[in-house]
Write the structure tokens for this entry.
Amino acid sequence: MTSPNDSSPRTYPDGSDAFPHHNLLDIAGLQPWEIEYLLDEAEQWVDLNRQSSKHDDRLAGLTVINAFFENSTRTLLSFEIAGKRLGADVVNMHAAQSSIKKGETLIDTAVTLNAMRADAIVIRHGSSGAVQLIADKVDCPVLNAGDGSHEHPTQALLDGLTIRRRKGNISGQTVTICGDILHSRVARSNIICLRTLGAIVRVVGPPSLLPAAIKELDVEVYTDFDAALKGCDVAMMLRLQNERMQGQFIPSPTEYHHLYGLTEERLEKAGGDILVMHPGPMNRGVEIVSSIADDPERSTITEQVEMGVAMRMACLDILTRRSRNVEGWT
Ligand code: NCD
């Protein structure tokens, strides 16, 4: 496959030359070369974002609506910055101040957003499948910024970009994902993305926080964190998603930290050169200790945030090419 920087147009195995997806709703629907292409395209935006002038006007005149029905810091801000750096008019809709609070249905909200002739809509919603529901009702591309415990595709892409830049490639890396796998859309999207690109994925957490059907995602399942860490290349730490828990899943945060917290002793015992990741927001002293989280050599936490802006610029650019009449891959 050619690199996007080559002057020759990029073609799919089926002979087409355009990114064949209207929306970005999940990683599960993407082919490995489509994921690689998204990562390749993000590289140019990493470079631009490191310059003092960070503007490219390719989305000038377009309107991007960020409709967030759930709280967010990183994802909302980075989609907003991404759209603005590409020259789009970006508006944020906060559910707390919207007509949702007045009883409007999700479909009526979607129809309303559509009537405003947005050119891309970015949606975060607390229910799995809600983003698909809206995508079915609007004409423009829809990007999933996280739907319930289903998927968070741009998070997996930015995590993939971070791993690829730090480790050189994704294929062949062993990635241990630790924590609340049951409720985490980040875990799900990352598992699918990493497996699609040829990484070995281990998941580890208390049995109560591992989905019953997790083996179907072709991962190695552990409940012993030390065993799961041994020999891995990357440790991806996840927050306990308390807001999605009904009932008691763990005895206490202290007990959880004792068994599944990433500490200096644990990392040392595991040996090797383990790269530590976390999508944020993190609960210091629960799933990770500060000395690891704040060490830029071992931890990529702020780098992941940086990659998030570049990755979202790539996604907005690629998905609006049809409406901008830009042909092909580049
Ligand atoms: C994650 C999310 O919202 O799913 N955060 C993020 O997007 N950076 C993870 C989380 O909330 O724990």
